[in-house]
Specification:
By secondary structure, this protein is of the alpha/beta class. It has a single domain, classed as TIM Barrel (Alpha-Beta Barrel), CATH 3.20.20.70. It contains seven helices and ten strands. The chain has helices at about 25-35, 55-60, 80-90, 100-110, 125-130, 180-190, 210-220, and strands at about 15-20, 35-45, 70-75, 95, 115-120, 140, 170-175, 190-195, 200, 205. An eight-stranded parallel β-barrel has the order 1-2-3-4-5-6-7-8, surrounded by six helices. Strands 9-10 form a two-stranded antiparallel sheet. Helix 1 packs parallel to helix 7. It is globular. The protein starts with 14 loop residues before the first strand and ends in an 11-residue tail after the last helix.
Length: about 230
């Protein structure tokens, strides 16, 4: 069991370890950042309803204030194209959600990006997979099932990620909502959290009221650790 610190937020703070993903317009990106989200994610995967081009992503992320991580989600994109996309979009962070190799991760790290590798294993295998990643790369654990590489809004047994506690700082994704974020934090001992469909009215269409609800819950968790950048 992990110890999580809870407190009452009096003013809006930057929640460095909270990422809201699948953003497709600059107004929503800025709104999320102004509410306190420490990371904004854009998706580069043609099969996703949240897919954007590199130029669209640059426009979406342009209004963000300094210090907010600009995260691009990639799925098995060839590394040269990935790096060019990241450069055009002016990303700070690359999230690899497919079967990218350690060589790909190293290339991205050496190009100056923060790199988060998504792992879909659990137990001792998860710990082994995390240990085998290049130094300085981050870890995100997501075990839910669906037709797309992401969490698909499906909850899973978050305790399966807790084996990393004390060994690797990691993010959690998959089925997270304002209603279960506290439970997921306690069960997993994760450092950071990644949400998308939980704050939508429809795939790719964010709901500001749901974003505010999420932020209100997140402010009662200790999410100040810098993870995404």
């Amino acid at each position: 069991m992990c110890l999580f610190v809870f407190f009452v937020a009096i003013t809006i703070m930057k929640l460095n370890s909270l990422k809201i993903c699948g953003i497709s317009d600059p107004d929503t990106a800025l709104f999320c950042a102004e509410q306190g989200a420490g990371a904004i994610g854009v998706v580069f995967f043609p099969k996703s309803p949240r897919n954007v081009s590199a130029q669209q992503a640059a426009e979406v992320l342009a209004p963000l204030p300094e210090g907010v991580a600009k995260v691009g989600v990639f799925v098995n994109m060839p590394i040269e194209k990935l790096l060019q996309t990241a450069k055009t979009a002016k990303l700070t962070t690359i999230q690899m959600h497919g079967h990218e190799s350690n060589d790909d991760i190293e290339r991205a790290l050496h190009s100056g990006y923060r790199v988060i590798k998504v792992l879909k294993s659990s137990g001792e295998q998860l710990l082994k997979d995390a240990d085998n990643l290049p130094p300085k790369s981050g870890v995100m654990v997501e075990l839910s099932q669906g037709i797309l590489p992401g969490g698909n809004g499906a909850a899973w047994n978050w305790t399966k990620a807790s084996i990393l506690n004390g060994k690797h700082s990691f993010a959690l994704a998959g089925g997270l909502t304002a209603k279960n974020l506290q439970e997921a934090a306690m069960a997993s001992c994760a450092t950071a959290f990644d949400l998308s469909s939980a704050v939508e009215n429809a795939p790719g269409v964010k709901d500001r009221n749901k974003i505010i609800e999420l932020i209100n819950v997140a402010e009662n968790l200790n999410l100040n650790t810098i993870f995404w950048r």
